[in-house]
Structure formats: structure tokens, C-alpha cells
Design brief:
230 residues
Length: 230
């Protein structure tokens, strides 16, 4: 494959975020009574892993933010979770943690999958096959190999829809601008020649400097995609 090159583990993971001191966790919302809320494109992107994840009772997502849940996109997101926390360091909000997707939002999301109304990027990253709709891929981590995408061999000129631009801008303004890195765990991705034409890689390539893939050597499953912006 002429569109990737092998790199060391250190190249992918030797990325230091600023260290936080005197961390305080402040619970700002513990939603007992569930409402029914529309699911925005950004919310879809953040909810998807909770739909797929079945190995743990809950998972936790941290979203970098210096204004907390008052950010419009985050305000839309937190409505779908029972537990919301602000991570505070040196009297400033550093990130928002979300846990426990509400049952009503889970049901709405699954209906969106079945009715094929998910955002194009969300579908491409997390729901490439029908088997991903209800059951999570069983990740066999095994021996891993790491690749860097070669920009000059890929097409980064695909145009995003307005809804997809919302997701890309959110990733930029939160993870990339504040931390320089965003890691996602796609579902149903395998290192094959056709992957270089992936909608997701084409769109991500427009907002980052480097993309790394971590691949299971046994079955060529793509375990992680790391997006780097310097």
C-alpha cells in the first residue's frame, strides 16, 4: 500500500498533554428524570461509542472545554447523559466528563441507525456494517503495528455537509486546539486498499497535520485512529 508508512509506537503515543494540578471534579448534573431531546450531529458523534460499548457498564468521555457545558454544542450533548462533571484545575474549567447515556436517548439513537438518518461521518466511523448496529465489535488487541498516512497519496478534497462541518469544527475547537490530539476507536474498519478512500479519513485530513492508524496484526482490524494537529 503506497498511502501508508510504518512508524514506531513512540511516534504515535509519545504526545504529552499539559499536566493539570490540584484537580477538582464538580458534578453539575445528575439527571434522574429522562427527557426526550433531538440528537444533534455533534451529540451523535459522542454518543456512538456508548451504543457500541457493551463490555463495561459505563464508559466515560472527557471533552476539553474552558467554558464548560455552557458551550452550545456541549449544552446539546449533556442532555443525553445522566452524569456530568466539570474537571477544574487552578480555578478554571479544563474539561467536561460525561457518563451513562439515558435510556430515551439510546432508543432514539438506535432508531436513527435503523432508519438510516445518522450523520454521514458518524455512520462511516462507527457503523460501517449492519452488525455494528446492535452489537459491539469484539476488539482483539493482540500484536499491533502503527502506520502514518501519506498525505500526498490521499484525497483530502471531499466536501463535508453542513452537519458534518459541525462535528469537524467541534473536534478542532475542543480536542485539537486545546490538546493537539484526538483519538477515536472506529468500528468495522480494516486495513485494506479501499480504506484510503474512506470519507472519514478524507475529512479528518482537512483539519489535521498527521493521521496515525493502530492496527491489529492478526486480522488487520484498525483499533485506533489518532489525529494530530501541531
Amino acid at each position: 500500500m503506497n498511502w501508508i508508512k510504518t512508524v514506531s509506537k513512540e511516534a504515535v503515543f509519545d504526545f504529552q498533554n499539559a499536566e493539570l494540578h490540584d484537580i477538582e471534579l464538580r458534578t453539575i448534573k445528575n439527571q434522574e428524570n429522562e427527557g426526550i431531546f433531538p440528537i444533534s450531529p455533534v451529540s451523535q458523534f459522542l454518543i456512538a461509542p456508548y451504543i457500541l460499548e457493551k463490555r463495561f457498564k459505563t464508559i466515560q468521555t472527557s471533552i476539553p472545554s474552558n467554558i464548560g457545558y455552557k458551550d452550545k454544542n456541549l449544552c446539546d450533548v449533556v442532555k443525553h447523559f445522566k452524569v456530568i462533571r466539570e474537571v477544574i484545575s487552578q480555578n478554571q474549567i479544563q474539561s467536561i466528563q460525561i457518563e451513562e447515556l439515558t435510556n430515551s436517548s439510546k432508543e432514539i439513537f438506535i432508531d436513527m441507525i435503523k432508519n438510516e438518518t445518522l450523520n454521514e461521518l458518524v455512520k462511516d466511523v462507527y457503523f460501517k456494517t449492519e452488525n455494528d448496529i446492535i452489537s459491539n465489535n469484539d476488539f482483539g488487541y493482540g500484536n499491533q503495528i502503527h502506520y502514518q498516512l501519506l498525505e500526498d497519496q490521499l484525497n483530502f478534497k471531499v466536501k463535508a455537509t453542513s452537519d458534518t462541518k459541525e462535528i469537524l469544527e467541534f473536534i478542532e475547537k475542543t480536542y485539537l486546539d486545546r490538546e493537539g490530539k484526538f483519538t477515536l476507536r472506529p468500528s468495522g474498519w480494516f486495513l485494506e486498499e479501499e480504506l484510503k478512500n474512506s470519507l472519514s479519513l478524507s475529512l479528518f485530513g482537512q483539519i489535521v497535520d498527521t493521521i496515525y492508524l493502530t492496527v491489529n496484526l492478526t486480522n488487520n482490524q484498525v483499533l485506533y485512529v489518532d489525529l494530530i494537529k501541531k
